[in-house]
Amino acid sequence: MMLSSELNNESSPPHIRNAAGLALKNALTAREAARQADYSSRWLGLDIGVRSKVKDETLKALGSPHPKVGQVAAQSVAAIASVELPVGQWLDVIELLIGFMNNQSNTPLRVATLQAIGYICESIKPEILTTRSNEILTAVIHGARKEEPSSEVQQAAITALLNSVEFVRDNFEREGERNYIMQVVCEATQNSSVSVQVGAFEVLVKIMTHYYDKMGFYMERALFGLTVMGMKHQDESIALQAIEFWSTHLNPLIRLRTMARSRKTRANFFARTALPEILPVILQLLTRQEEDADEDEWNVSMAAGTCLGLLAQAVTDNIVQPVIPFIEANIRAADWHQREAAVMAFGSIMDGPDPKVLVPLVNQALPILIDMMGDNNIHVKDTVAWTLGRICDLLINTIQPDVHLHPLVSALVGGLTDNPRIIANCCWALMNLADQLDFSENEEMAGQGSPLSPYYEGIIQALLRATETASNEGNYRTAAYEAITSYVIHATDDTIPVVQSTAVAILHRMEQLLGMQNQILGVDDRNNWNDLQSNFCSVIISVIRKLGQGIQPLADRIMTLVLQLIQAAGKTSTILEDAFLVVGSLASALEQGFSPYIQAFLPFLYPALKAHEDAQLCTVAIGVIGDISRALGEQSASYANAFMNVLLENLQSDILNRNVKITILSCFGDIALAIGPAFEPYLGTTMNVLRQASLLTPNPLDVELLEYVSLLREGILEAYTGIVAGLKGTEKASILLPYVPSVFELVQKCLADSDRSESTFKLAIGLLGDLADTFPNGEIKQYLLAEWIASELRTRTRMPVETKKTLRWAREVVKRATA
């Protein structure tokens, strides 16, 4: 009460009143759901008389002649409303606020009232205010009209409209009301006040997002012309919103075209029709760069580049010919603005048009672009490196190894000693080159080497030199380590020695960095240390996966360093996750050769498994149990009891994220598959847990729960698959028979789901096959002869190759088991 009284006290200094209002608002609102629930309960528990007095005083403060006080009062009103309206209280607040709007003589009151309406709309679910949407819209639109004499009221009304766009869906369905709303907003884009204009374009962007299917008529009649004028505006804030409008317009069109693979939609036709008008404006805006622009600060030239990229994806081949003259006219210009804009334009149209259309242009441009990596302007070089990265990513076939590879690699490696922004883009380009020129997956080609093989050692050495710095400005050091990881992943047989020497270099750096643990002085040092260790772990993981059993000579050194890293990390979960991933990879690579390390590692694994409040760390730790079990096979039986106990404890936790529990169910399958008949002591408990979990049935209207249940069923299927496979062909297989009905019940439920995923279908069919293969002598014949099984095992036309193989195999084993 003291706070609201102070907020409403006109004799008190404005800054004191502001502080009181903010304290009141902060006593009612919180970002965390649990704290918000606590604040709401505390407020609703107050005497109704106290609450009424606070509300009255807060509403009166809306009329303060001090704008800031009125705004803080509006926030406080919204904070109270966001607590009371959802529980059916203070239902007349909207009516009271709309009444204030009729006081034409009190401009500050009308401004603060509109702000309050906007804040309420922003903080409350639309369905709660549905019955008041007409009144809200009437008040807001009235304030936004061009006839409104106060630009402050117009500004507040436009902001309130921005926050209420989602509430007025019913109004947008009615043509007459929609026309009037659009008229007022379009007129506001021509207001004499820049802030009103910016707000009006923001509203148009949001309307386009929510009511895209209703905008065709308005695009033709008004929006096209208004937004082109807006993009040409000298005020950057207006131009930015006008560009954003077009980006928003193009995004749904790109999605539609991707889904339908059709280029004949009306929206696409309109985009192509508008192309001659908007493209010259966008290209011109590319030249409005700033010499000292902050990379993180969004500006007109960046927005124009993004919009051009979207336009290329929307109109595809039609973008190419109109853009080429701009590129040709500017790429050799004396003014760096024009050169950079030309390169940006070229890079932006790489995604969208048919590669066949782009190939001859890229072939012609590549030598010029490579040469421009020596440009004397940092902005030009940065964009050239980005464009080369786009070409490597999207049009790798244009790079002829015998013609382009040497100058391209030389230029990109040379860029690794430049400005941090240029280094980051050169790393990205080099990474794309390795990813797209990947010969490692094809055994025959991997044996012959890759076109990149002669450059491997030089590239990785240059990347390692680029990382010899204490700075990570622009994330360039991280980008360099990511590129190194990519080269390790795609290494062919002839470059394995380079991978091995890279591993030794990274391990040496880990040792050095661990030795500096006591020299860390502050948060920045700690973050830098953490980032580097994460980078090292990522490279080592890729090395282990590439070398497989060949990592054995370095295994002792890796495990020693990882255990030291776990101890040094303390409770820094991201470092612990990375360290555990290294261990899991090493276990998978060494298989039973990992056994000498397990006793030293387990004391560090168990605390992570019990970190219920850290879902990600716990998930990774559970994954390591699976890795170790698969690696050691039957040898892991001696650890199974401890593993199963901690996993079962985790399932009972009320704190642990439910998605982590799905990972636990899958892990049961890993343990069972590894130890086979030795899983018998845990079978009853595990099968009971799996059956209970399979009974969960989602509300079809709860999308989040539907998704969770889908993932849960996949986890259960994986567990059943591991258990069945572990017992198949052993003398203990018969202990599965009592549980067969519940397994079939889940499989039928999964296959009957029309929204099932491809992975669920494959798992379910595979499990049917495993059961039939486990009991080939008719033990479960009565279940396998069910009509639904025969129906599901029929061949389908559209199906991935691997799924089709699984289906064919399952059909054969079921036939044998029912003969």
UniProtKB/TrEMBL annotation:
Residues 1-64 form the Importin N-terminal domain. Pfam families: HEAT_EZ (PF13513), TPR_IMB1 (PF25574). One of its GO terms (cellular component) is nuclear envelope. Keywords: Cytoplasm, Nucleus, Protein transport, Repeat, Transport. GO terms for biological process: protein import into nucleus. The keyword Transport applies. It is found in: Cytoplasm; Nucleus envelope. PROSITE patterns: IMPORTIN_B_NT. Signal peptide: none annotated. The keyword Transport applies. InterPro entries: ARM-like, ARM-type_fold, Armadillo, IMB1_TNPO1-like_TPR, Importin-beta_N, Importin_beta. GO terms for molecular function: small GTPase binding. Belongs to the importin beta family. Importin beta-1 subfamily. PANTHER family: IMPORTIN BETA. This is Importin-95. It comes from Hermanssonia centrifuga.
